[in-house]
Design brief:
mainly beta, Elongation Factor Tu (Ef-tu), domain 3, 8-stranded antiparallel β-sheet, 8 strands, 0% helix, 53% strand, globular
Length: 129
Amino acid sequence: MANHAGSEGTVKVGSNAVAEIRSFNVDEAGDTIEDTTMGDTVRTYLAGLKTWTGTVDCYWDETDTSGQGALDVGSSVTINWYPEGAVAADTYFTGTAIITSKGIASTFDGMVEASYGVQGTGALTESTV
């Protein structure tokens, strides 16, 4: 069984790494369609459509024009999620996504942080580097 430190991960927009990542997540979900009929004694379901979403949380870096700068709300991007890093034989997930949210937060005693939300459009594919 392989384990990985979260610090190994990265996210790329196309081939450009997003700078200053603190954390990220990508979530897949599938709908179910009930097909229970009269006379059945238990509910039954069929697999329906799949969907995926994700978030990227960073320290804000306005000079990262090809990473954070490419994550403008409404933009469609190819996004690549590398939970174990981006070296040979590492697993990653890729898909086209629409940027659905962007938030910038600042506190007097902390770093300026950015958070980006994405909605996948089409399949999320698992591959290896």
